[in-house]
Write the structure tokens for this entry.
Amino acid sequence: MDLDKNMTQEELAHIERYINNNLTFEELSIFEEKLKNNPDFKNQVEDIKTLLFGIEKQALKEQLDTFHKDIPIEVIEDKKQPKFRFLNFKKTAVAAAVIIALGSFWYTNRSTPKSVFAKHYTPDPGLPTTMSSSDNFIFYDAMVNYKRKDYLTAISKWQPLLLTKPNNDTLNYFIGSAYLADGKEKEAIPYLKKVTLFKEETFKNDAFYYLGLAYLKVNNVELAKKNLNFSTIDNSKDILSELED
């Protein structure tokens, strides 16, 4: 099986949501259109289906192996006959069926921090790039890069500005947002956290939200919940609810 090594974790999670029938109607329409028009992508999806099915089978096998170890074994001894081991196959079959059902439920309904992140994360859209002021030209020039998803270029232009204004909430927020959008959540966290400590309210609510998502990406559920609880963004409640399931 030759999976695309350049496929991101978010893309893999998106495909898994398709396989598990968890896409929205709009997402499903876009996904099926891509399947129809992109044979390579269709092959990748089939490969991932096969891979996930193999993982599921292995997980259930391990559960059954553990189950069998715990089954009482009745040993009938006879001096003239070899020792035989008898199991109650009717009860075993029922128990195995229960384990398979539970295993299937676990597989299709499991929710990990990273999968919740992939489901809910979309980058901050950025600010309108109206370069009316020459003083702000570099900032808005970098914003153009950010909106084109050239996040590292945007960061390289914002960082010198931050050296002169280290407590600027706008610069800290968008540098953190750019790192998060580029898949560098560990680098994003200090900048977003700093914004949540400022008195300025402009980006604080969004900073708490994206900081919570960043902590989800690094599997720190407790800090994710803590920050999401401070955000009034509607999606925060949905994420918190999923994390409690």
